[in-house]
Amino acid sequence: MPKRKLNKDRKRHSELDTIIKKLYESFAVGRISEERFDSLLAEYEVEQKNLSAQIAETEESLTSYEEDTARVEQFLALAESTPISPS
């Protein structure tokens, strides 16, 4: 589930780059007012900043989870290969 959300957030982050570029183009050719441009740009930048933070947090969590899983697998492999001697 976290990987799916991470991919979704990365995709949206990339989409926002495209949207912001198109917004600049619309402003440059006079299709939208400066006020509207500033308003939309601010909204998109806040969303992108929040996504960047969420992406970093999710990546960190996934890395930690994968490292923990690898350690558990190593421990289990070691435990399975160690003979148990009767006391």
Gyration radius (Cα, Å) is: 24 Å
Order of helices and strands: HH
Q: In percent, how helical is the residue content?
A: over 70%
Q: What is the beta-strand fraction?
A: under 5%
Largest sheet: none
Number of helices: 2
Oligomer: single chain
Index terms:
single chain, 87 residues, mainly alpha, 2 helices, 0% strand, rod-shaped
Outline the structure in words.
It is a single chain. By secondary structure, the protein is mostly helical. Helix content is 86%, strand content 0%. The chain contains two helices and no strands. It has helices at residues 2-28, 34-81. Helix 1 (2-28) packs antiparallel against helix 2 (34-81). The longest helix is centred in the middle third of the chain and has 48 residues, at 34-81. The chain is rod-shaped. The two termini are 45 Å apart.
Short note summarizing the structure:
This protein has 87 residues and is mainly α. Helices cover 86% and strands 0% of the residues. The chain is rod-shaped.
What is the element layout, followed by pairings?
Blueprint: H1 2-28, H2 34-81
